[in-house]
Amino acid sequence: MTSLCGKGVWLAYSYDLPRAVELTTQIGGTHLLVKIGHGAFYFPESARELYRRTLAMSLDPLAWIQMTAGSDEGTLRIIEKALTLGYQAVVLMLDDARLAAEAIQPLVETLLGQEEIETRLLLASPPPAYLTDDSAFKQLVRICHGGWMPLCFPSLEADPERLVNQGIYQALGDLALLWGKAPAIYPVLTAMNPATGESLDAETMLRWVDTVTQHGLDFFSIFHAAGTEKSHWALFRALSLPCLEAAVPNKPDPDEPPETWRGVPSIARPVYITVAPGDTVMGIITRYEMTREQFWQWNAHLWESQGFPRDPDYLQAGWRVRVR
What we know:
By secondary structure, the chain is an alpha/beta fold. The chain has twelve helices and 13 strands. Strands 1-2-4-5-6-7-8-11 form an eight-stranded parallel beta barrel, surrounded by five helices. Strands 9-10 form a two-stranded antiparallel sheet. Strands 12-13 form a two-stranded antiparallel ribbon. β4 (60-66), α3 and β5 form a beta-alpha-beta unit. α7 runs parallel beside α9 (202-213).
């Protein structure tokens, strides 16, 4: 599977499709994430019909399955059916901290070594620090080589900086050891508090979005269509992604009061570069006319996640560093 690029919307229930289509269209979305299974239970009619309708709307279909204690051979069959139907990838949703490794180990052992499937599996979960038992997480990373979709939910942590910066990006060193490499990261945002069902206020939503985008994004998704109030749509539409050939216009919705998202069009998109062999910190600072303080404010997490001291000469080729 190639890397994901764009904006996705999660569809939790098939009857929410009209809402999901409207939301995806309004924010310049590219992918629809369709729930096709729950544990070992497969939803064949929804899987086939929603796949067809997603393609008809010129969107890329991703399937997702809710992992449960009953995720066994039946889940394996769901994965195989989804890929056979033509879904680009399958996301395994692990949001139950009580799910133990023993429940899913048979599934993992069966899929190990099936590279064609492993590269099209992604894991969606809270950061490991927010799981009371991370054994199921550690099992699933063995087969989910397509990337990680960390759940950036206020029900897990009220402070987005702590969850995103510490729970995700400063933990990349440990995550790379589990995955065998640094996983592709595709954050999952929500416009509501899943624990209470209440919509986030504009200031809180903006804080979450700003924290996530500081690290550079090629793909993010919104969970889920029915829980995303229209008052938040302009913010998601205002986010442009470097990998998209054409940025989504940062225009406010004419049906919304102009004060709803005052200043949204001015959200700055961070600029990142990929470190090449021979690059140095001071060389990049000079090239992009930055201050040392600004460079380390944006990029120190790369060194900290590896346990390295801040070194003005050392840079790892392939790192993405922020320069604007």
